[in-house]
Amino acid sequence: MLRLQSIGERSTPLQVINTLGNFFRIWSVYSLYSYLASSGDSIVGFIFSCLVPSSIIFLVLQKPWKGRPLPNSQVVPTVINGGILALYFVLWGKGLLACGPLVALLAEYAGAVLGVLSAALYGKKVNIWKKIGGLAGMLLAYYLLSNGWATRTNSPLYSFGSEPLEKATQITGMKEMVVPITAGILSALRRVLARRVSLKNQLKRRLHAVTVASATCFLFSICNVGYNSTDSIVKLQLPSWAYLSTVLFGMVLIFYVDSVAEEKLHLVFSSPKHLMVSTGCIIVMEILYKMDFSLLGFLICCVILRFGILEATSLDRSKKKKSLETHELSNGSFHNQLPIKALPS
C-alpha cells in the first residue's frame, strides 16, 4: 500500500507537466487559428515553415546519426511515417480552418477507431460488440459537433455567457468533418507505426527526428506543387506568437510531454483520461478567445465521445488490473512489458 502511495506521489509532478504541456499546445492551436483567420496565409505553407525549425531542433537534440547505426528495417518505415505525418498536417490544417479549433482538436481522438479495427481482426468476438458500440458513440459525438451543439449560435442547450458575439459560427456538417477525422486517424496510425518500429524509448526519439525531417521534405514537395513560387511560403510573419508557439509548443514540446506521459504515467493519446485534460484546456481557451461556445453542449459531446473512446479502446480489465498490480509491486516497470497491441491508439 505504501509502495502504491509513493508511486502516486511521484506521478503528481508528471501529471502537472502533462496538463501544462497540453494546455500550451492547445493554446498554440487557438493562436494559429486566430492568426490564419485574420491574415489569410496558407495553412500548408505556414505548417511547412514551422516544420523546418522543428526538424532542426529534433535533429540537434536527438542526433540520430550518432550511436549504433539505424538499420534499414527501421529507417524505411520511419521515412514512410514521415509521409503520413506530412499528410496528417495538411488535412489537420484544412480541418482547422474549415471547422475551427474545438472540432479540430476533438477530431484528433478519432484515431480510437483503430481499436475497433484491431478487435475485428485480432480480438475476441465477445469484445467486438462493445467496440462497435464505442464506435457508434464516437460517431454520435462527432455528429452533434458537426451540427453545432458546442456553439452558442446553434446549440439547443443553455450556452455559457450572455455577451453578444462578434461572429456567429456556421454549422459545419459531417461532410466537412471528414477531413479532421481522417487527420485524427492518420495521427493514430503514425503513433502505432512508431511503436511497432521501436520499443525502446531512446531509439523512438531518434527515429522521431528522422520522421519529422522526412515530413518536412514531403511537405516541401507539396508546397512546390501547390504554389507557383516558393516565395509565397516565406512571406509568413515568422516572429509572430502563432509561429513561435506552434514550433515550440505544438510540435517540439508536446512530443516530449506525450512521451513522458506514455512512459511514466501510461497515459496515451486517444484515451479517456487524455480527453479529460484536453476538455478542460479547450474550455479555458474558448472563453479567453471569446469563441462561439456553448459549455453545456460541449460537455455533452465530450461525455459521449469519452464513452465511445472508452469502449472502443477497452481491454480485458481483469487481466489488465492483475498485470498492473504485479508489475507495480515488483519494480514499477510494467509499461516496458505490456504488449504493444494492448495500447489504445
TrEMBL record:
Superkingdom to which the source organism belongs: Eukaryota
Protein's UniProt name: Uncharacterized protein
Organism: Avena sativa
